[in-house]
Amino acid sequence: MVSSVTSAGAASGIDFESIISASVAAKKASLSSRISSRKENTQLEITGVGLLKSNLTTFKDLLDNMTKENAFNKRAVASNQSATDPVFSVETKDSAANGNYNLTVKQLAQSTSFSTSFSSVEETFGSGGSLTFAIGSGDDAKSFSIDVGEGETLNDIRNKINNSADSFGVTANIITLQDGTAKLVLDSGKTGESYSNFSVTASGDESLNAFNASITTDENGNKVASGDSAMKLVRAGQDALLDVDGDTLSSSTNVFDDTIKGLKITVNRLSDTEKVEGENGTETGFKSNTLNITTDTSSLKKMMTEFVSTYNELRTNLDNLTKNNTYSDGKSNDDGGYLAGDSTGKTIKNAMSNLLTSFTVGGDSNGLSLFSLGLEVDNKGNLSVNSEKFEDAIKNKYDQVVAAFTGKNGVCAKLSSNLETYTKTGGILDLRKDSLNSELRSIENQENANSSYLAKYEESLRNRYGSLDTMIGTMNTSLSYLTSALSSMNVNNKSSS
Fold first, then answer.
1. Hey, what domains does the chain have and what are their CATH numbers?
2. Are 373 and 401 in contact (CB under 8 A)?
């Protein structure tokens, strides 16, 4: 209930409003002082726990990537081909191994294409009919058809071919020549020898027979347009051929994926030619290019450098989060971290340091330590990489380096497992944050309760001082009346005398 007294002191002339305001302010300060510092500290701690989890998660994500079995299987690719116009390009996979090869691109994969000429793009085809496009054989056979309506033009047919939802990739293009005639070019859209049997079969109006197209093989084994084909053969589908150290590999596309285990080779053009001595004297032949796959030590060193820098950054962040406040003249300077004085950071640092120090490849005292493989630590606990030592380990102890850092028994997996206790959903830090949020809600509830109490306290003061104001006002009125009456009596007495 809101007090009806809105201006205490109006009756008496006494400044009760200032008294009420001062009393409420004093009571508010008394109540706030008990919880404000508690609320501020809780909010700072919640922020600190969030930052701690974020820092730990960043390092854990790196550890999880390094834990993967093939994390250290980085390969460098070198070839003696042109950098601006390479014959082939190479990508390495996790399963790639070191090796040296001589590659020669003897043939590129291509699709089957036909062409024929018409009077113009507006040429029509009688009463119409249908065109059926087919390719492949057996389980890989594909086909689709389009209907040709009466009066439809060459351009209409082109659009129907290109827009067919059932097409297996066929494209139709029209080239308008200088004399105004139109040349239609059909491409199967599928490369490879197995798709060289691309065909078009017309039905309906005889004028559509101009689209008939098919392939046969001549007496020399060459693919040519068949006798029933009205369209000319522009090119026949063929596989890409890649010679690797004398052995010929084939691919229906210009990509050789895992044909050499762990490598994806894309052929871009035919190999350069050169003069060679053959059975019939000097002949023109293809020139091979070398391909060398080696261990990419620079990439591995970069990975180790990232591991070291992220580890050191985490240690620094833990120190900053948990550093204590300093004091001057017995008073805190409030310059500590969000988790000032908290032991969690120190616990994590000690656990990581002890694990790195005690870890050996194989897990026994006879195994190689991380420091024998190139890691170093200073008197502050920060890591660094001894480049010479690490490169020597990669060269002469590669399997031990891999075992040290990757797999479920490597140091990265063990560090990650330790950190997961803190970073996982429902882990130590999540539970701690939940507890702090619960405490913060309790503090905020107390603040709301204090606000209600202050409103009631102010109301009671207004009622009390309002009553006092009324009483004093009444007394002042009475006093004024008596004073006036007495004054009148004195005047009357003097007049009688």
1. 6-74+296-325+332-470 (1.20.1330), 75-108+239-295 (no CATH), 111-235 (no CATH)
2. yes
